[in-house]
Design brief:
The structure is a homododecamer of 149-residue chains.
Chain A: E1 4-10, H1 22-25, H2 30-44, E2 46-52, H3 56-66, E3 72-76, H4 85-93, E4 98-102, E5 124-127, H5 132-148
Parallel strand pairs in A: 1-2, 1-3, 3-4, 4-5
Chain lengths: 149, 149, 149, 149, 149, 149, 149, 149, 149, 149, 149, 149
Amino acid sequence: MDRRLISVIHGPNLNLLGEREPDVYGSETLDDIDGALGGLARELGVDLECFQSNSEGEIIDRLHSCSGRADGVILNAGAYTHYSIAIRDAIAAIRPPVVEVHLSNVHAREDFRRVSVIAPVCVGQISGFGSTSYLLALEALARACKERS
Amino acid sequence: MDRRLISVIHGPNLNLLGEREPDVYGSETLDDIDGALGGLARELGVDLECFQSNSEGEIIDRLHSCSGRADGVILNAGAYTHYSIAIRDAIAAIRPPVVEVHLSNVHAREDFRRVSVIAPVCVGQISGFGSTSYLLALEALARACKERS
Amino acid sequence: MDRRLISVIHGPNLNLLGEREPDVYGSETLDDIDGALGGLARELGVDLECFQSNSEGEIIDRLHSCSGRADGVILNAGAYTHYSIAIRDAIAAIRPPVVEVHLSNVHAREDFRRVSVIAPVCVGQISGFGSTSYLLALEALARACKERS
Amino acid sequence: MDRRLISVIHGPNLNLLGEREPDVYGSETLDDIDGALGGLARELGVDLECFQSNSEGEIIDRLHSCSGRADGVILNAGAYTHYSIAIRDAIAAIRPPVVEVHLSNVHAREDFRRVSVIAPVCVGQISGFGSTSYLLALEALARACKERS
Amino acid sequence: MDRRLISVIHGPNLNLLGEREPDVYGSETLDDIDGALGGLARELGVDLECFQSNSEGEIIDRLHSCSGRADGVILNAGAYTHYSIAIRDAIAAIRPPVVEVHLSNVHAREDFRRVSVIAPVCVGQISGFGSTSYLLALEALARACKERS
Amino acid sequence: MDRRLISVIHGPNLNLLGEREPDVYGSETLDDIDGALGGLARELGVDLECFQSNSEGEIIDRLHSCSGRADGVILNAGAYTHYSIAIRDAIAAIRPPVVEVHLSNVHAREDFRRVSVIAPVCVGQISGFGSTSYLLALEALARACKERS
Amino acid sequence: MDRRLISVIHGPNLNLLGEREPDVYGSETLDDIDGALGGLARELGVDLECFQSNSEGEIIDRLHSCSGRADGVILNAGAYTHYSIAIRDAIAAIRPPVVEVHLSNVHAREDFRRVSVIAPVCVGQISGFGSTSYLLALEALARACKERS
Amino acid sequence: MDRRLISVIHGPNLNLLGEREPDVYGSETLDDIDGALGGLARELGVDLECFQSNSEGEIIDRLHSCSGRADGVILNAGAYTHYSIAIRDAIAAIRPPVVEVHLSNVHAREDFRRVSVIAPVCVGQISGFGSTSYLLALEALARACKERS
Amino acid sequence: MDRRLISVIHGPNLNLLGEREPDVYGSETLDDIDGALGGLARELGVDLECFQSNSEGEIIDRLHSCSGRADGVILNAGAYTHYSIAIRDAIAAIRPPVVEVHLSNVHAREDFRRVSVIAPVCVGQISGFGSTSYLLALEALARACKERS
Amino acid sequence: MDRRLISVIHGPNLNLLGEREPDVYGSETLDDIDGALGGLARELGVDLECFQSNSEGEIIDRLHSCSGRADGVILNAGAYTHYSIAIRDAIAAIRPPVVEVHLSNVHAREDFRRVSVIAPVCVGQISGFGSTSYLLALEALARACKERS
Amino acid sequence: MDRRLISVIHGPNLNLLGEREPDVYGSETLDDIDGALGGLARELGVDLECFQSNSEGEIIDRLHSCSGRADGVILNAGAYTHYSIAIRDAIAAIRPPVVEVHLSNVHAREDFRRVSVIAPVCVGQISGFGSTSYLLALEALARACKERS
Amino acid sequence: MDRRLISVIHGPNLNLLGEREPDVYGSETLDDIDGALGGLARELGVDLECFQSNSEGEIIDRLHSCSGRADGVILNAGAYTHYSIAIRDAIAAIRPPVVEVHLSNVHAREDFRRVSVIAPVCVGQISGFGSTSYLLALEALARACKERS
């Protein structure tokens, strides 16, 4: 049987992780997270690829590129979560299931962060566990892959 | 070192799981979920207790009883999620961290299910993965226990 | 052929009927209503059971208990009509059809009484006819039973 | 003692009943409903007259004409239910009690169908029972006539 | 110089004046009002014509008919005031100035009566003075005619 | 019989009339209006007093001073119309009837000018006729005085 | 093969076209538009019928009459576009596809003109091209007829 | 003359007082408050009974039980204040006056705490004085009893 | 130890107390209230000063003057309660604690009276007890003074 | 005379056409649409250029590049239609007229798709006719070019 | 050439500057600001006058007095910024340009401080720079004076 | 001491300045503005760099690049001001203070231009002074640099 590919997409400002508002987002860098994800992926026997962009258009392009290639997508759309209907449409347009993750508990912050325009087209949402949010998403997708295979 | 106790609280109508709207909630029963949680708890080396009630007051009482006793709470507050400020206050009043879980992707259903009045006082939210939502919550709490110890 | 069972559920504060705001709710007591319903049930050849509770959780429990047992439910959810999504979910979760009744014309009172969160999952709504609202509901359910049989 | 007259007013698009969206409104025609009402009226010993119009102005005229003549009005105002303040004012201006009926459960459809601008000036509302909604309304008015006489 | 023609248009339910909700609208009939207007018109040396309809379409037709013929219009659009954008467009489309009148103080009643969709295209609004509202409107239009001549 | 006293109160910025936004408010000054009102008062046989202030508190004081002394008040509250609940309470607290007037058609301007917090406690409203709005108000009050005497 | 029939329905105030607010609606009359439509219909080989009414009820009647007879409907519902749920229900109730047209760009005008209650039950919407809006609608329907045949 | 009975009802989560969010609610326990109330009751010569529940239904039952027995009720409905229309209806249904109290200044906290659905049916509201809120309520009721006697 | 000074500020229209809407505000005059407050102040051993103004600016000036001088302020801001952010800022800017009082139960009246823009910066709110509202506020402040001393 | 140039701009996710949600958007690919447009352009004697991008910034750049070069723009802004004020400003900033097109009937889908922030600055809107929407837009622009030449 | 006069108007509570909420407004007093403004005015060669009032009416009077006399106005309307339509009308009524200034970043505070009812009639807005906000406003007005001269 | 660097970022459509809607934005080009800023920078002794992009992602990248390098940022985010939470997060994530500028008085235009999602994380806002808005921002930042040094 083929190995599965999980694609991780980090949205705007996540490249600053570790130096950006550490009281909200913690001191881990994006490389730390990608490293931890890589470790877990090896453990679970799935392939992993990571990507970050501050551009809405590039995130849409990346989602499109996952369509025939990846078995699942982990998406932290950052601030685009709250208004990018274009990313929402990209998620709805592609085949692999997309899991929405957030580092912080978006529900405990400003009101506008409580609205996710992408949530209705994602399979599920995990928020508030810091970098663990990503790890749980990876496990959820790996489980789902196993069930489907 | 002591073993940790995780308390699971299932809210209203979850006792009907398996027969209630199976297209939305799946065919697993609550016992199936509690069984799967028990297996994972043993694997993770934590103790587990499960509880279900249709009564807002009993859920509050149960949350209170966790205060000095449990190291984490997994709460599927069901419909109370959307309006029970009393449960919200109970969560804020107790010491152990509470993880909010939902079987279905509440964001893909009726508008009123997109509002969670308890989310701002929970540590995080996991929704949309069926019974796996609970398992991920248990892993998240077990990880957090380990980090604290 | 078996006799049919219709279950009547009276919600919060209806136990005070007759003494509570008589200009709004009339001078009949709940026993008067149950008596009149019993008379009509005998006439229509259906069995009847009546229940009252001020507790949201007990009303949910009662709705659950109707699931494999009753052929129809008459529910006056009182004030819970306007916010109990938990009762709504219970109605959606059980098999027998539920008819929503109100003594007063809820549309001619405060704005918040015009919203029924349970109406979308009930088969129909009858309001404004005093105790006759219940009797009409019983006739509607008896007719529906006859059509199904 | 005189026989009582009940006036039935069917609003816009109800003339298409049977061919219009049968999944929502059923396969009975308006003549079927008027026939069933006639049968029940004979049984209850009341006179009945039926009227249909697609015109807001004609419905108002008809309501006015009921004022000194009919002992009760059964009104299915169709879509006018949701915005015709002019029909509302006509109901408030005339003497006989008006019962609002709907074939479908208007609360389980589009949001705008949940608002009835005429409900506050009607004596009561019956919705969701198909043509039985009309029959229940006729019984309610016949009962009320008997109590008044 | 020609005599001026003022056209009076009474909207829905105003034909019931005197018998309809006398505590809100007073005991004068529409004929009483037309009579008083006629008296004042003679005094002011203007011609007057009066019209009443319950039909939105007929009121629009009447407004159109005023276009090249009347020098001013007094319009009590009744309940249509609050939602008939079609009447609004008719007022905007014709040449003579239109004065909006109301018998009652619409601002002291239900919230929906505080919105006038026709007010922005009328020259002015007079409300709350009973039949005197019409007389003041006639004086205002007569003054304006005199200034223009 | 005593002569009647009508008190005219002009609110904020009306002292600038004639120089302020002449396309909205016309070129007449406040003195012109007071003069025209004086002329009409003599014609109608009533006494008149005029007052202007930019201060909400002084307008309230003036309204209070009318209580046992004036037989009617003509109030153009200017911008206070839209938010001064304190002036509203003063109107409700005093005995003489108050007529609300506006020079411009407030309904054809910014949205916030369409809300009058004082309208529900005034006897009526006249707007859009320029200085004629005041004259019509004076006639309305004089008529009412005559009817009461 | 039979020739196709396209029915054109013009709503309220469109009879004034050419004299009504020419800066918004242009100087063409309704006859000009019907003439241009007739020319294009001949070119496309379809039959055409045109109708105008200011009455909501008559527009509903006309829509009903199209049901078994016309192959497509071009509807400019004028102001009724924004509130006539009754016309919406008539469109949903009949068989031929209905295309919504507007002369002006309704989205560039008052806020209330941006809401179309009929749009969700029409096949498509064309607005802003003056009389060309109608011609494009005719072409769209003729194309659709050809595809179906 | 009989001694008066004042009934104190503490709502959800108030049993945790002293350990729950002490920065918001202070360090006094519920027993401390009941003790202080008892002392003041003796001073004022009234009888006192205290009750706490986390259950909406039990609070309603308790309010009902006050009806023919207590001369006044002091109610801190906690979070139920903000949504329990059922408790509101219970207050409206019973005879003794109910005073609404809050320990914290609910107006200085989250927006949803500024809405009290029970306030319109209570005689008055006291909030923000910590346990003194209860003492002031007791004095208010004792004064009112004295005035009535 | 020094005697404490409590400053009482009565807002707009309270000077009319006794003659203004007695069904809402009772028949006591402002002098009656100030007298009762004076009596209680002597009993409690605190100094008292009373002030009334209809002017928002004067109320702000008075609040400022309390800053280094008074130990507590009792403020009935009347209608300004609902919109005067300027008074709110004055309260926040001064040192002594301010207690908000209302004679009537503002929550049982018009919707706009349910909003208090000053509540978030006051220490507490007492409403609905007539003149007793003031007396309770005085007791609350006297208690707080004693605790601080 | 010069040939005219019409520029077609396809927004986000339209590159997936044919594979993306075919029940909503049909099975035609973007190349099919561009081909059909090319054919019609030749027929109408106008030049055509087509462009697609998922990036808001690139769409703005493209609109700018049309300014002195194209005689009309056909824009399907996809999801950006609903929130990109930046694209709106670009349309307003350039000279050629822009026609807004949509494949699906956006008014029959989710609520947020009913809002077009670009509509007020486009000349017109065509939606719901699948790829025919583009063809009608091209005809409309070609007609307009002819009228201007 | 004449020297230019710039008039500075400080609104409610600004007299407390330096002692009022220093974490929000800083420790500078109003005299400090007026002094710094005076220094810059001398540098720029313009005359300056400063005024403070807590009264809405006095601020309006002051604005009126600027009309024929000052060449520009710097207005910090304080809390009146958010609701004083009367001050807005005064600004619109006078000739000299008015610049709106705020010490704090009003957009980073409570929601109600984000609305400025005066902004649409001011030439521009400067907020968030502490006392520098005033200095920048003075430079902006001085530049504009130079351009006009 | 080192020279300070101020970074200027111009958002979408600002490259069209001078040709785009000159009645709103004036006839100066972006080069004119950058030139004027350069002149003032030399005068103030600070370094300056200017950047323009129509892409949200590039603006975010540019803001990030300022983090360890620039001493202040002048940002005219154009239309992104009103919805780009991603730009807001970038501003919050970087170290140098950001000043928000607008050429036009955004408060005097469409409603949606009155909302700035970036304002709460900027140090201040300057709008309405044309290109002078930028110059004032540069002075403000230069002053702040001087105070910090």
